[in-house]
Amino acid sequence: MRKHFGFLLFLLLPFQAYSQDLSADELFVKARTTAFEEKDYPKSIEITKQALQKAPNYTDISVFLGRLYTWSKDIPAARAVFEELANKNVQDEDFFIAYGSLEYWNDDNTKAIEIIDKGLTYHSQSEALWLLKAKAYYSNKEYIESEKAITSLLAINPKNTEANSLAVRINDLVSKNAINITYNYSHFDKQFTDDWHIVGVGYKRVTPIGSFILRGNYANKFAEDGTQIELEAYPRLSKTFYLYIGGAYSNDVGIFPKYRTGVSLNANLPHSFEAEIGYRQLYFSSNIWMYTASVGKYYKNFWFNIRTYITPDNKNISHSYTGTVRYYTKSAQDYFAFQIGTGISPEESRNNLLENETFKLKTFKIGVEYNFSVKRNLFSVGTMYYNQEYRPNEKGNQFDVTLGYTRKF
User: Fold this and answer.
1) How many domains does the chain have?
2) Are 90 and 231 in the same domain?
3) Does one domain contain both 91 and 212?
4) For residues 18, 94, 83 and 100, what is the CA-based torsion angle, rounded to 10 degrees?
5) Which DSSP string corresponds to 14-60?
6) CATH code: domain of residue 238
7) Do residue 292 and residue 181 come from a single domain?
8) Is there a single domain that holds both residue 233 and residue 270?
9) Radius of gyration of the chain from its Cα atoms, rounded to whole angstroms
10) Where is the signal peptide (predicted)?
């Protein structure tokens, strides 16, 4: 036993002697390398402690030790390190970020906000602190306060990717009620002699389990009138996942489909990505089933999205693809959008064209949209151009203009 102990001591002595020769800064670098490259947190903790023995008042090293304990899920040890720094009245930005993150990750959002607010008194322009504050309020379901924090952050840096991503999610939750009205005008150069007019009026209610939207639509197409009633829900399943569930009914088949249903699973993913997968179903005189998937990504104050609809039948599979780019100006409600794609989407107001297998014909579309807000009043204007194959080898042009107004309260 003594031989084994002596051999172990023989192995450790060179390391201890080597460590004693290193400065606190060199040990700090070694501890970071051990943590980030080797993923060996226990070893990194020991090296960090050795560095603190050489420089007990080296704040950056102490903060790093607290982070190591946090990553190792030794929460009491992490709190002990941060509380000792708080008692010393440390004012470093990284200290408040690390301490606030510890409490946020462990669901004590009230404590996290208290720490962050103190940090902001010293570092009012800290993007990391404002973002962490917005996340903590969002996790606490205090959406108005979360929006205020995001607004402060975007005033500092409108191109903050995470802030723009979170701002969009908060936007739909900050007001419990909203009413909106939309008008869509369509003109055809060949396909139809009469222009189309569609008016929609909707009411949205935000509840603890998600948002619900009731909408009524009136359309004048082919010089005939029709109405449709729609209901949509966006129940939240977790911090990451939520559902889209939608259905519609109309007794004016041809102007609208008789039935429309849809379900999608949506995910807010790491690194400001988002994804969706689901189906849409339309029934005129028979069912049309479409399967959809999309991937979105926030980058600075841009949002990029690619969506596809796949419609299988007995003979082939029809495809629709749409790419969208948004440029946010000052908030989630203020942006320019550009869209380009092929094929027909069941989300479009012109979706009654899907009857009689028109969805299999070739379509090219391109359009722009502008959304802006004045306090709780939201306005939108958009235009879209379609080059539509309405019969095999026969094409026509369609021009759309869409106007919208929403009032939140």
Assistant:
1) 2
2) no
3) no
4) -130
5) HHHHHHHHS-HHHHHHHHHHHHHTS--HHHHHHHHHHHHHH-TT-HH
6) 2.40.160.40
7) yes
8) yes
9) 29
10) 1-19
Rounded Cα distance between 137 and 71, Å, is 23
Same domain, 167 and 181: no
**Containing structural domain, residue 312:** 177-408
Task: Please identify which residue in the block is written with the tokens 């903050």.
Answer: 160
260-275 confidence digits (pLDDT tens): 999 999 999 999 999 9
Cβ distance 333 to 349 under 8 Å? no
Assess contact for 94 and 60: CB atoms under 8 A. yes
Which among 37, 67, 59, 61 has a CA at the least distance from the CA of 49? 61
Q: pLDDT per residue over 214-223, tens digit each?
A: 999 999 998 8
Q: What's the CA dihedral at 201, 205, 206, 209 to 10 degrees?
A: -110
Take residue 49 and report the two structure tokens written for it: 């402690």
Residues 61, 55: Cα–Cα separation, whole Å: 9
What's the pTM?
Answer: 0.82
Take residue 125 and report the two structure tokens written for it: 């322009």
* pLDDT tens profile 295-324: 999 999 999 999 999 988 777 788 899 999
Q: What is the CATH number of the domain that holds 97?
A: 1.25.40.10
